[in-house]
Amino acid sequence: MSDKAPLVRLQDVSQRFWVEKPWFGKGTPLYALREVTLEVPAGATVGLVGESGCGKSTLAKTMLRLIPSSSGSVFFDGKDITHHTPTQMRPLRRHMQMIFQDPYASLHPRRTLLQSLQEPFVIHGETQGMQEKIQEVLSEVGMNPQLLSRYPHELSGGQCQRVSIARALSLHPKLVVADEPVSALDVSIRAQILQLLLDLKHRYQLTYVFVSHDLAVIEIMSDFVVVMYLGQVVEWTSGKELFLRPLHPYTELLLEAIPVPVFRADRRKQHRSFSQEVPNPLYPPSGCPFHTRCGKVTERCKREKPLLRNLGTPETPHYVACHEA
Amino acid sequence: MSELRVMDLHLALREGARFHPIVEAVDLTLEKGKTVALVGESGCGKTLTCLSILRLLDESSLQITQGEIRFSGLDLVTLSERELQRIRGNSIGMIFQDPLSSLNPVFSVGNQLVEALQNHRKMSFSEARDQSIAMLEWVKVADPVRRFREYPYQLSGGMRQRIMIAMALLGKPEFLLADEPTTALDVTIQAQILSLLLELQEKMGLGILLVTHDLGVVAEFADEVVVMYAGRVVEQASVQALFENPQHPYTKGLLASVPRLGSKKLSSIPGQVPHFRSFPTGCRFAPRCPHKMAICEREMPTLEGENGHKSACWLGRVPI
Fold first, then answer.
1. Is the overall model pTM greater than 0.90, yes or no?
2. Inter-chain Cβ pairs, chain A and chain B, closer than 8 A
3. What ipTM goes with this model?
């Protein structure tokens, strides 16, 4: 999707979990991801968006091989890492880091910040000059190094998230996967953290995979956006193009549902009710997975699953999985 | 006209022998058929204010130290537990943020609905069941007879919140306290739940207190807005006035911090919310305020204003 070589590439990756297991036998397969093909260009930010349960976090974890994929291939930095053993993965891990949603849960409650921040250096055997590097990365994220002897419970959510970011960046990784990094924070703090992530990205030429359910946040952060629904990619294009010309009815639904903090006199009338809930992923609908909630549904949608096709230009591709788009 | 009034409410948290004031001087009036939104960031006291209306606080550590909560000629602050129990669920219902932890996982939905009904009114099981199923239909639960037999884990988040709403409305209350009812839900489901609440409000004339941190939700659903910061009300206005002409620097900062589609601008309020153990003297927002003056650090501004639009800020009141 870009002139640059992709840092991460997923080829037809599926993720299948066995659930509702009986005493004997395998149970029912739940496809958290279905044949996802995706590229993350080096130096870009790819936003993953969708409702809860759409597979966006599973996709992020599969990309890092935190969970092995059921089928398909995962490439990182040109290497096929699909069948890497944990030992083989280990030297690669320093190049791929993750930031999680809950800042308190991602720091060890009984370790000081210093201890938590030392961890990556110790694991990767780079203890030389560690103290200075920790001081440096901590001031990079806008934290006072005097706080190093504190415990997570003594800090606010925003501060904890800064420490998580410092820890993720301390070994200068190539790829940072941020899974809803600001969802647990207050609005007034949220923008501070987003700005920090943007600044750090430019300074270190990082590649981000940014998972969020909030399209407004995705718009600010992302160069490319991937919209997911029930484990499938339904739309995939540049951030600019997506917000200018959303083509999938599901993307339109998501955009429409965001409450806007502006007073409108006709607000009550405008409110159309959003039909239906997300179907059970164990028993996904036939044909297009979105057809049960779609306003443009036809007979074909119920029968035939739409494939991703490019409706943009070869320079700015715009992939959509919809018969009617 | 029936109304629910919170007057000059003060709450204090006990730590050993010391009392820390955590909510101070909150006034708000709920009218039937109207929605008042209580907005603020975590720790600002909005949820505690909401819980204190039905006295659902842990009174061994959290106490109402001053103020009245007037409802149909009674002061809820002075009522006994027994008298309160007649009001809870009957005249004033409540729904919470996380519908899964509000439902008992080991009882069926129907069981819990029937229990709620039988607690309030003397009726047989079959009568209670029929009323519960009717209420499920009322909150637009598809296939209510089946849902009645199901357990919370079998339902989606949106469905669970509908069940909670049904349960809160079984006693036909006049007022509904909704503490972040859609925060745990996806935006699409949030829109469904909020439009359901709006529809029920029109049908039943419910007065709703909507506690939320989401200004988008406020703009779409509230009639009146109360903005809280660090335990105090900083601005109070009609929804139109608040969004078109916000007065308090905190409200302005908060509005600017919301990421909006179509604008890639990021703005935030520097610093962080003060801890209740170390509230600043004077205006509590002063340490983060771009317009801070000398008086702001000395004296707490009172909540003042005209035409129902009040704000607690020294700006414009004293010569600079």
1. no
2. 127
3. 0.82
